[in-house]
Write a structure and sequence with these properties.
single chain, mainly beta, 6-stranded mixed sheet, about 0% helix
């Protein structure tokens, strides 16, 4: 016992003030001073741990033998494990990490665990935190930036990429605080806004079998634009759930042609009909301010 008359271990050093109670040092430049602790594994092999100061890296904690390095609090099972491949596992019981960083929660059944939080402790609009994913050491010119930030009203999420390798990152995708999705733009005009830039193809929708549909649904009915084989279909009231459905073609916010559910077609009128025909007749009505004309 040093500083105590009642040592509780083979070496017990005690002092009343704050400060180092043991100094292990080397006196030459760029050398290591280390304290070693040794135990045995279940097979009887030595497990050797060293703690010391390193001339190249500063403080070091490492195993000398081919064993993992574990960290724990309150005398619990390891809560962080660094294996011999350099994989780091976080979480109680995660002693065999499957990636360079493997975070596991085993105490949150039936719920989503928040395993990682990145923050920027400021409050101005534009303040946030990001994660770089890419090649090399993750510098911005070779990676993708995923960011969450305060936009002045709520929070938004963005993805930035580089158009060329080594180029500057620029925003390509955003989810706004209201849930709007923006691609190629930062200005929303609806729940999905796409700006294709100089590309004339703004979007493509593909099915791997016969038939590709885009459904348009409101609180009354569902309509569909469908490509099926060599047929392009524009379908009003796809499920035939409502009577008197129509298809209208508008120019400059004005209806120019109407197709009724009867099959009658009106150009310049929304009520194509000719008296004297029975209900099975199909009518094309052309109407204008002065007269209707059909030129053949």
């Amino acid at each position: 016992g040093i500083g105590t008359t009642s040592p509780g271990t083979k070496l017990n050093i005690s002092q009343a003030s704050t400060g180092a109670v043991l100094l292990v040092q080397t006196t030459n430049n760029n050398t290591r001073a280390q304290a070693e602790f040794k135990g045995t594994d279940p097979s009887g092999n030595d497990v050797r741990l060293r703690v010391g100061g390193d001339g190249d890296f500063g403080g070091n904690i490492f195993t000398v033998s081919n064993h993992k390095l574990g960290f724990a609090t309150n005398n619990a099972s390891p809560q962080m494990v660094l294996d011999t491949s350099g994989f780091l596992g976080l979480g109680l019981g995660n002693t065999s990490p499957q990636a360079k960083l493997n975070i596991v929660d085993t105490s949150n059944n039936g719920a989503i665990s928040q395993l990682l939080k990145l923050g920027n402790n400021s409050s101005g609009a534009g303040t946030g935190a990001g994660l770089q994913l890419g090649s090399g050491f993750g510098n911005s010119g070779n990676s993708v930036l995923l960011s969450g930030f305060y936009d002045g009203t709520g929070t938004s999420f963005t993805i930035q990429t580089c158009t060329t390798f080594g180029g500057a990152q620029s925003e390509k995708f955003r989810i706004s605080n209201t849930g709007d999705v923006l691609i190629g733009t930062t200005t929303s005009t609806g729940k999905l806004t796409v700006n294709s830039g100089t590309s004339n193809t703004c979007a493509s929708f593909t099915s791997t079998d016969a038939g590709a549909n885009i459904n348009l649904v409101d609180n009354s009915a569902r309509s569909t634009i469908e490509q099926n084989g060599t047929d392009l279909k524009i379908i009003s009231d796809t499920s035939a759930e409502d009577a008197d459905s129509t298809i209208k073609f508008q120019v400059d916010a004005s209806t120019k042609m109407t197709i009724l559910n009867s099959g009658n077609v009106g150009i310049g009128t929304t009520s194509p009909n000719v008296s004297g025909f029975n209900s099975d007749a199909r009518v094309l009505t052309i109407s204008g301010p002065k007269r209707g004309v059909l030129e053949l």
